[in-house]
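User: What would this chain look like folded?
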Amino acid sequence: MVIRAANAADLDAVEVIYDQLHTLEEEQKIKTGWIRHVYPTRKTAEAALALGTLYVLEDEGVIRAAAKIDQEQPESYFRAHWTLQAEEAAVLVLHTLVVDPTIARRGYGKAFVAFYEREAARRGCTVLRIDTNETNAPARQLYASLGYREVGAVPCVFNGIPNVNLVCLEKAVGA
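Assistant: Here's the prediction, encoded as structure tokens.
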């Protein structure tokens, strides 16, 4: 298993994962709160790739997970009640972590978060921030199991999706 910066050849695989998750959402088998053709879309991945912030987890030659890692804090973050204060340059954010749902529960999500935490330390960041939709119980459970603390939910329009309660989570680097 390797986690690396994505390249253009990875976009189709990332889009397939998005589509699989959208289908499960539409079938009411999961509750990400995401909406097909709104977020996430191929354009979501393309924009992150163009900025050099899209990362993929590859196992046995197959893309199994993806996420965006950067220092971009959405506007809604500035209404959250963070307990770990830091200059913006000291905060690293994990966005849109997706794992191929056909092979869930193999540790890919945990491996990706561990990579994100190592990347934060490598960059000299002191605070980790993540968000998820309040309805996404599996993500919230994963992050809690990895030591992330929920600081509250912020009502917002999230990447074009209305009426989202965005749960904000934080952790100190190295904690």
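Residues 2-172 form a domain with the Aminopeptidase fold (CATH 3.40.630.30). If you want, I can go into more detail on any region.
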